Amino acid sequence: MTSYRLPQGGLIDRGHPLSFTFDGKALQGVQGDSLASALLANGRRLVGRSFKYHRPRGILTSGAAEPNALMTIGSSGRTEPNTRATMQELYAGLEARSQNRWPSLAFDIGALNSLASPFLGAGFYYKTFMWPAPFWEKVYEPFIRKAAGLGRATHEADPDSYDKCWAHCDLLVVGSGPAGLAAALTAGRAGARVIVADEHAMAGGSLLSETAIIGGTPASAFAEACATELRSLPNVTLLTRTTVFGWYDGNVFGAVERVQRHIATLSPSRPVERLWRIVAKGTILATGAEERPLVFGGNDIPGVMMAGAMRTYLNRYAVAPGRTTAIFTANDSGYQLAADLEARGVRVSAIVDPRAAGGATYAGKARVLRDAVVTDAHGGRSLAAIDIRSGSRTDRLKVDALAMSGGFSPVVHLACHRGGRPVWSDEKAGFLPPANFGGLTPAGAARGIDGLAACLDDGARRGANLVATFGFTATPVAFGTVEGDVPVSAPAKTLWSIPGGKGKAFVDYQNDVHRKDLDLAVKEGYGHVELAKRYTTGGMATDQGKLSNVNAIGLLAEARGLSPGAVGTTTFRPFYTPVSFGALAGAHHGEHFQPVRRSPLHGWAARHGAVFVETGLWYRSAWFPRTGEKDWRESVAREVVNVRRNAGLCDVSMLGKIEICGPDAAEFLNRVYCNAFLKLPIGKARYGLMLREDGMIYDDGTTSRLEENRFLMTTTTAYAAGAMNHLEFCAQALWPDLDVRLASVTDQWAQMAIAGPKSRKILQAIIDEDIGDAAFPYLAAHEVSLFGGALHGRLFRISFSGELAYELAIPAAYGDSVAEALMATGRTEGLMPYGVEALSVLRIEKGHVTHNEINGTVVPADLGFGKMVSLAKPDFIGKAMLQREGLAAPDRPRLVGVVPLDPADTFRTGAHILAKNAAATLENDQGYVTSSAHSPHVGSTIGLALVKRGDERHGEEVVVWNGLNGEFTSARLCPPVFFDPSNEKLHA
Amino acid sequence: MPDLRALPALADRTPLVSHGIRLSPLPEGTVLQMIVGPDAPDQTANVERLANESGLAARPLSPGQWLLIGDKPTRRADMKHLLAALEPQASGIDQSHGRVRMRLEGPMAVKVLAKGTAVDLNQRAFPPGRSVATLIGHIAAHLTRHDVEDFEIAVLRGLAEACWIDLAGMCEEFV
Amino acid sequence: MASLVPCPHCGSRPKEEFTIKGAALARPAPDADPDSWFHYVYLRENPRGAYEEYWHHTAGCRRWLIVCRDTVTHQVNTSQDAAAAKGQAA
Questions:
Q1: Which end of chain B has fewer CB atoms within 10 angstroms, the N or the C?
Q2: What is this structure's pTM?
Q3: Which superkingdom is the protein from (chain C) (predicted)?
């Protein structure tokens, strides 16, 4: 294939060739190429097939707006679909594949869609695939998905790492073209903290494609010199390959840096992409302007290209666009391109200008046709000829490349991410960013400034003004005379489409939306800009209409007889360009997905063979299997029986523990619990119920009075964080007049429950004080001395299992040693570890509630705690609402036990209760099983349930109905305490 | 008498060292959380004095709250004495086992931390000697800047290992 | 993606450091009539514009704040410690 690479010039390194593949074929580019420029240099014009009609498509732009040249890059887990070839830097070994073609790019069966095109017009989804409904899922959608689409994501795991970070600055400059560089240098020299971000590999923006001379230096060398100075300033960070994709509340900008997307051999220790969250006091939006295509027949044939892009490929990459070129331009930028092409020896056969008097300064050889338009382009997989209409005459001209320029649209996206709307300017013939919306200052072409010198000047001034508001004395940097600066000058008339063409005239290339689709949308009543977008799909998908939206708005305006300003734009939202999920997730996957919270007894549990279960962030020991046990049930049953017979040790360190100090601590507790706490004696623990303001139970636990003004509250594991927040709310927001001091001490203590008839004997062996029933009765709570004063801890005589039981709290680092010491001394007494599964069986046997029962709909009386509530107290959280009539209604669901009639039968948690012989209907629902377990003590499944009037129905025969499995179990309601109802064991 | 050994939360972790960055566990010594009552007059001077007397460093945690931190464990009697000395204007809560500290230092320390916290780590905004409470990644932490490139991080004991693993990951590109 | 909430004690911090509770309403007196309690517990305005809410700086100073936020622009107009605000109101 012929090379289109020019023998000299360009910002490329010819001495550094790079091999790459496109659809499996080996090609060569050079260092400094983009994938797009390398393909063009190789004469590869056809690079993809269009979305709906599978038309041949070529490279249209040289930047982020590229709608056609989307490729799949890489392989296996590194497959990256929909990569814009214009933004992908070439590296050795790059593998690129075209998309949306089958069986091959050159011969694509889907191109038959073009023949069916009347059928595929705007709204075709809605009209064509309406009936029959089941066909949507089975026929239409699979068909559409196969026929129309972009690249496919891989199912393999991404082997690379991603990273996130924060950055802070006085001034963020988005874009490093003339305005951006001028603003950044001005602010940087003044000492402001500056971050400059540019999406390309090199700083400079349009300067890199420019032939002008600035202060005696060629534009590209000028850009390099500016970048070098910026990098030398300690207060400036220059981020290249970094796209600022969104503007968020609090002046935070999101940006993604492609750290290793341009490298052949990745460093495994570095991220491939880094997500930046940049907090800026002020921002210069120097994003430049996007050139608009012209809408004429066949304007999508490979070889038709944006004029600015052609200039970039020519000047920056030294790639000739073709052998014979024509330029269709509605402004003076096309003449500059013509001059550059001719200077590089590329023939320009015609400049077609719809204006009467454009290009006054052009002195080249090309024929200039004024008052003329290109109506049609012809060719299959490559441009062959164009039709030029001048007056009443149409001539065909053979060319293999055509540049087009319909005008310039400021890139306003970021300025509109927080609700601002762009403003139409007739003078600039484009939408301008909203004026100074919330500290974001547009500069240069992004606000419609025309010409290189004017953009440099505007950037410098606006940068100086902005940092002056932060207290910096800045002088706008002056760069000297600019030679060869040809202002583009606004077109005499905006040209939304060229009438008279025969071929399809595309408005949105990526979504295959052509002029007639927009006409149809208006005709069918979808002319509103937001409706037209959905009806035609124009402006959707990966490019979000960067090239097409303004033309579409212009066409809608024409059809509706309005100004483009009156039609308005669709809503701009992040992201400016697609951002990978990897970058958004950052390091938070795998073991970093969420932090693991470890109990100080984790090592002890692991040594004793614990199987762990995730409980929030904690890993709790669930059970401790022993050799020969065939399943977890057997292990759990053995642990339960051993606690009832001998003793067990369970890690309860993850229960929430809060110290409550200060002179008003007792009063505070009295207000946050529904039961009384003022008179709790020192050295005693009490069970407490915390309500919400609506009267429902929030959480439960014990609170011990350690000193007159020092209490220790325990909460459930799940509600530990919430309860602390709640207490802080009560202390700070509700009753700041109370002197109460709160501290979470959950992590300070290793806490173990030692439960069972032999627990006292085992503990007494290591505790110095007498813990006999007289000295240390039920609900005693004291500091204790261990091992002859070697260590101190806290001992609480509380029981979740219903057995004689204690909880021992040890300063966390010593927990491991103490647990092992207990295991050693307790071995002869049969002490075994037990996990949360056994703990759960034990508490269900004893009828103790957890958040299975405290489900947000129960009041104390529902669980049999009615008498605990101290309505005599003047105030407590939930008091007022608890006294509502409905919460005392006689048929409320209340706690009850349930056992199967046949001990061999079983039922599950969540199953519903029906009266005997009642049909399984919602109306007959009596309540549900909140907790269930196999009870070794009872010898069958047992359950706790919330059942209407449950406490009055002990002994009633019912049916437990599992609607999911269609199971019905005959059962009997009973008191919710299956074990030791007289609490003899507890008080032993 | 069994072998009573304090088992540090980061017992298994050896320092991560390179030219750019060093991450190391700090000794589990003394951490005392001190909370002043809402109506008490400014206790800053008092806190500094008490900390000095006890060989501890006082670091602000929240309005009216400090962490008093030292590398050595405080003896039980001394701790009782210190707690009593705080009352009644303030209360002390022993968190010596509840918080675990680690140190991050080196020329890349700021870059590493910026991956986790949204606090502006510029020296002017966050000078040496200052402490802040902030999220580092997903973990709430108390961060103290000792010197330009020298930071101390204190987290809940249960999250110490997770924080270490996260920080080690953040350091990876500089190791 | 990211946004900042000003804390009067800690400065601007990302929203991830906070827990939001909802409307900053004054708690009625314990013996207030049922209607007042009903309003306090269940009824919420849904204003377009300024809205006062309780925010907790959970991963920072752990203070409860009253943050006044514009529901249209997300601009935070004021942010003050809830205890201090209550002291001023009293």
A1: N
A2: 0.94
A3: Bacteria
